[in-house]
Amino acid sequence: MFSDFIELIGAFVLVLAILQITSDRLYFSIKVYAIQSFFVSISILSIGIYSSSFDLYVSSFLTLVIKTFIIPYALFKTIDEMKIKREIKAFVNITNSLLVISAIIIFTFLLTRYINIGGSVIAKEIFPISLSIIFIGAFIMVSRQKPITQLIGFLTLENGIMLVATSVTYGMPLIVEIGIFFDVIVGATMASLIIHHINHDIDDMDATSLSDFKE
Amino acid sequence: MGYILAIQLIWTALVKFLPLRVVYVAQVFITAILFLGSFSYIPKVIHQKVIFQIKDYLFLDSLNILILTSLLFLVFCIAIYSIGYMKKEQEQGLSEDKVKTFYMWKNLFVFCMSVVLVSNNFGIAWIAIEGTTLSTTFLIGFYNTKDAIKASWQYIIICSFGIALGLFGVVTLYFATYHALGEGMNSLNWINIIKISSNLDPSLLKISFAFFLVGFGTKAGLAPMHSWLPDAHSQAPTPISALMSGVLLSSALYLILRLKAIVDSAGLVHFTSNLLLLVGMLSIFIAAIAIIGQKDYKRLLAFSSMEHMGLMAFAFGVGNRLGVFAGLLHLINHVFAKGLMFSSVGSVLVNFHTREISKIKGLYKSMPLTAVFITLGVLGITGIPPFNIFISEFLILTSALDAHMYWQIVVVLLFLVMIFGGFIYLFSSMLMGKSDEVKKEDYKMLLPMAMLLGMMIYLGITMPENMKILLNNAVDILSNKGVL
Q1: Is residue B484, in this structure, part of any structural domain at all?
Q2: Interface predicted TM-score (ipTM)
Q3: What's the CA gap between B421 and B425, in Å, rounded?
């Protein structure tokens, strides 16, 4: 029963990752990311209640504060200041992206069928689900042109890892998790600072001009 | 070794509040103390095999003491070099505050690398390696030019992405070990895992290793995920390029090796070795292609780092005793050789302000001493005796011969010859020719080059007894014989 509940939450997170792909507006993308993080924090909280572990309460609380509020707020602020245009430029259009994504999801479920995981596992299906989220995040990073959407792709990927780290085992050691949070928040801040620079100093900067570099 | 880390952290925090003159001098003394401190651990490590500190979160064994000591030696050389380099930059109008910022980030970067090396725990090592990404991002964008900002964006996104995949590898590893070792930090401690490694679930270890290789391989500059490397190395201030190339890449590879030891003793030697062989040869191939037609000399050196990381991966992929020995030796040799190369071309860069090979001519006329160092460095890094790189490359190929990998040897040799040709052709066009300008050479920049060159020749001719013992012990550690 409990594992079904965790898997349901995991499925929500996956659906939100798919929704992220279909979004063509930045505001919407950031909102989707915030809701996704909210679901991740619920998943962590419920495992925390189930196993009554204090570490998971802390990490659920940190997820809620940092990823549902602070990072989206910072991103909203960045795009307001930058006056970045609303639409998201993509190398691969939405229909094709969805096809790629469905292939990714089928592939990850097939792949993990061959792994027989020994021992007690809280929710087995979380493993392929979060692997899909990781690959979807990676796909967003490579298929979108704007730096800020690449950042959102990275954050989605990170959510997938957070989900698997807490739902398959009873969470990583607390010190490690706090370190991960710290790195993510500093990384996101630095990335938005660079986006600020990019917008300030380089007029029409997107990922296509990144390939100016020649070998 | 706790105090080595503590000194670095305190010094990082202090840098911003001291006058620049003091920072310049103090940096040299502090790095000298750090180097000597790490050097003084060597007899102890040989005696006790492994030293733990702060419960068992930090440890020193024959493998990481070697890398740590050569890291701190390079840091010491670079500390002297930076004085000359930054003074030249100040003449060009770089503000004092910027220089202090440079020192702050640089020290934080070195601190993170040291934590990666001495940490016994994969979780902490992951955090520290992400710390190296964050602390170098602003250093790559240091000059605030369009290219520099682009390179730093590329760097933070590609490396964070790679490191996130590495985190997935760590999670999978934890998943494999926490049944046996229980929840908590214990289950990520390397020493604990290696003891029970033969009982772990092989399929999970396979996934973990694959993600480790791609994830930390990104930081190590290995083939499929190397694209941040040339831009980052060419845009960063030269002292940072030297540190990144010399030790950042190696410390990422070091983590892969630690995991390889675990996965190997679970009976997956073929899997890990073949992956490393493939990745290594691909890296050498891409580097060889890129070096031949290179126009920018710092990018040229960046690709050369990629080539050497590929060679190391190849050596560890060959995997017999000699191969692992040669790989580790190459890792250490590369630190000195790349340090020399970057510091010597860095002097050219601060004097001529161009990274284009075709715009620089007649270095023997304009900067004769630096030109000598460049020549010797080029000969050294392409593997000519009597320099140290020759010994380790020779041993790598011999070990592959022992393992009957004939076509692999031919292919690797072919690429090495291509790289040799490219290096000689491109650098001779910079060194020879006429030049009217005569630049003043700063002894503060020449001294570290001489020290690094001395190390290269010394290790090329002989090998200290202690180093031999440490290397042999390290090979034992990596093949899971006699860890404690």
Answers
A1: no
A2: 0.88
A3: 6
